[in-house]
What does this fold into?
Amino acid sequence: MLQGHQTWVFQNQPTISGTATVVGPFEGQGPLSNDFDIIHGDLSVGQKSWEKAERTLLEEANKLAIENAGLTKEQINFYLGGDLMDEIISSSFAARTLAVPFLGIFGACSTAMEGLSLASLIIDTNSANYVLASACSHNASAEKQFRYPTEYGAQKPPTAQFTVTGAGSAVVTKGGKGPKVLSATIGRVIDMGLKDPFNMGAAMAPAAVDTIQAHFRDLKLEPSYYDLIVTGDLAKVGYELALELFKKHHFPIAETQYNDCGMMIYDYETQDVQAGGSGCGCSAVVTYGHLFKKLRRGDYKRILVVATGALLSPLSFQQGESIPCIAHAVAIEGGKE
Amino acid sequence: MSNSKMKKLTPTQQEYQKLALAKEPKRPLLINCWHAFVAGGTICLIGQVVQTAFIKWGGFEQKDAGNPTVAVMVILSTILTVLGVYDKLAQWAGAGSAVPVTGFANTMSSAALEHKSEGMVLGVGGKMFKVAGPVIVFGTVAAFIIGILHWVFNPSMGGMV
It folds into this structure.
């Protein structure tokens, strides 16, 4: 049901009955390593190309999420997936493996929450019984497509972010056990004219703030309604800027805990990740791995996940275009099982 | 950012860009320069040792010893690239590892490695110069201009001065 201008409130309690996260070696060395289902020790995941490695992560996450939900792939009505590769090949190819009716989506690093909001809407409107939503990214395949060859020696500025190698999948069902999706706010594209692809946190922060404020405006809620508000991959630079913008707009973010997945996934002391993590996989694995564990345990009652995406392509920034950004917010309720 | 570029932006965008710029962590310029000096100097020192070795034991003249020295440095850099070390060194060294010939070898070997998955012709062959290409193109253009200047200002070559 639409409430306000851009928020869906789900009344039939779409439930996330199964999730799975699969990550690479670097994420496995990070502080959240205990919260992931599968950690690969090899960045290439035993595959011949980075692209195949990324796809393998996604296929494993999909398979495990369906198992964790106690389902078989034949029962899944629809699969919504997206990633960062050109023409979202990782998701399309994983959909070929699943052989489930598929909708490919692209929201750059906001894809995880774009998928989850659409999956919840499909369930809420009785348009399906079981929907699978997932997102993935791979550090090397992203470097290859957006920046330089992985082994090329280029010094990164402190604003640069490290693409997460990982895939996160969630199965949304009608009723059942697990965290419930309460509402979702679809963001609009915000472009502040920033052009530096090595500073995407700064480009994305205004989009995150815009969507968060729209969410509370539409639902007439206070930030304290949530135990945690978490953005997808603003990392250190974008996080600081988001705090500045909240202050400027007199938005009481201090009422609740505010964090960023890109700052949670790596250890700044021991891991050389510049500003922090990024990529579709970042918000997906932190949310479905770490945050869901806490939701299921009852550490958090309600959280708001705001996945942020920079909608640029290598072509657009080479042609001097600025970076349009987007953010989608999904409210999830946990509670002890 | 220049003023003419700023004029095209809305006031909100301008205001945010100022904020973003103020909050942007600066590149540690002095430390980067120091690292580049140490790393670049070390690479050149190794090069010098190799060259001297070629002159002393290889029977090369001073002016001929350059070519085998470059070949050795290129091979060393390629080995470090393949072992996945060169890019990590570069994050510390910056320009120190990018400017010497070892940096050039790294651009080509890293691109060749990366695009091997697209086949020998379109992948390795086609994409090998992805990063090195501009260096060759503009290096040649610069050499051409310097060559003309050299011809114009060098009396022994029959120039105008």
In short: Chain A touches chain B at residues 48-51, 144, 148-159, 191-194, 199, 202, 205-206, 236-237, 240-241, 244-245, 272, 275 (CB under 8 Å). The radius of gyration of chain A is 18 Å.
